[in-house]
Specification:
The structure is a homodimer of 210-residue chains. Chain A is mainly α and 210 residues long. The first copy, chain A, is built from ten helices and no strands. Chain A has two domains: 54 residues, Orthogonal Bundle (Arc Repressor Mutant, subunit A), CATH 1.10.10.60; 150 residues, Orthogonal Bundle (Tetracycline Repressor, domain 2). The first copy, chain A, binds a DNA duplex (30 and 30 nucleotides) through helix 1 and helix 3.
DNA sequence: TCATAAAATGACCGCTGGTCATAACTAACA
DNA sequence: TGTTAGTTATGACCAGCGGTCATTTTATGA
């Protein structure tokens, strides 16, 4: 009988519902200000139960971030096989990222968190975590498009595609940071967000053309 | 009589010595793992005294970061008035940043921290803090050099210098991040750090040339 | 209905950032 | 020098947190 299968499904459901709850609280109060008791209350479970599914608050945070990354990846899948040249696709990718950032600011926040983890201070046992994060990171899509561009001959081949892709992704993260946090620091009230984004993309992409 | 002056000096000295102690502990254990008692012990003061000079652990961290920023700024001052063209100066600036990153990894870490503060979650009363940080930020030097470049006609003028400068600074922060944390994530063992840096600079700067 | 295992609970713990009543020290004057 | 007013330093203390675990509750299968 499929009892154990059902149990497994239910366990996953419960895990998911905890992530749901954590998302709500993290996104509204911020990660640091959120307590495990908050999440327990929101999920209608006891605190102890949370620790049956996640081994720490940070672990739960990572789960939230991984889900965010999956959402972002879903928005961009299929792009690589579209009938455009690679640079246009990179442009589209950039637009997708930006609209994601606007639509899901909380999710974006969590992605920025995992992408800036200080791996030096991570215990060695967590090496696999690095690989999981990297494997799922949206930078993969960027790299694929860059490689396409090199094949098409419209992206410079004198610099390693890995470096180019990382630069583009870094730039994307920087733009997120900029739009979300630091916009007010600059005295550029006379430029719209969209305009700024176009400028950014133009600036960044003009460096990679062959 | 200069009694009160001497007192003021001594207060500043004490403040400085606390920052010294905090640096040591932060840089060796990391910010989160450091307790105020650690710093109290290192500074040979009681915990209560620390709170006479800094109103919170984060405040102390900011003081450490501001000192780091000052060190970095000192390394680059005078660059603007040198007899090179602006793009060469930007290149030099990049090299200076990189060697700073290598020489003072702890200081760099603290700078990355303040540069990525989530200002949305900062109370309004701390608006001045934003300005202080921005005013001291090394991005100022970048902006000055970009403006020089525009005047010289070697940097494109169709995009606002503010955006260009921010892109370059963002890129610098991203490169720091990359070198320090994520290098191992990429399978590019066959490229030296210096080579990678040169590629990076070339890539970034080629986008800003007019 | 009962026995076994799995899941959930919440009282509890140790540690941390931060506070505050008290103490120690300093400086100026009588 | 003794007194006093003000400043600086102390460390016992607190509340809140992440995390644990002995106990209870629930689900399963015969």
């Amino acid at each position: 009988m499929g009892t154990s299968e059902r149990k497994k499904r239910e366990k996953l459901k419960r895990r998911d519902s905890i992530i749901d709850a954590a998302e709500k609280v993290f996104f509204s109060k911020g990660f640091e200000a959120t307590t495990m008791d908050d999440i327990a209350e929101q999920s209608e479970l006891s605190k102890g139960t949370l620790y049956l599914y996640f081994k720490s608050k940070e672990d739960l945070h990572l789960a939230v971030a991984m889900r965010s990354i999956k959402i972002l990846n879903r928005l961009t899948e299929g792009l690589a096989s579209q009938a455009q040249n690679a640079i246009d696709k990179l442009n589209t990718l950039g637009h997708t990222f930006i609209s994601f950032a606007k639509q899901y600011p909380g999710h974006l926040q969590s992605i920025l968190h995992v992408e800036s983890i200080d791996f030096r201070q991570l215990s060695l046992s967590k090496t696999e975590l690095k690989h999981v994060i990297f494997k799922e990171s949206p930078v993969r899509m960027v790299m694929e498009l860059v490689q396409q561009g090199v094949s098409e001959g419209i992206i410079r081949k004198d610099i390693s595609p890995g470096i180019i892709a990382n630069m583009l992704w870094t730039q994307m993260l920087g733009l997120f940071q900029f739009v979300n946090f630091q916009k007010s620091l600059f005295e550029m009230v006379d430029i719209s967000e969209d305009e700024m984004f176009e400028n950014y993309m133009e600036l960044v992409l003009s460096g990679v053309r062959s």
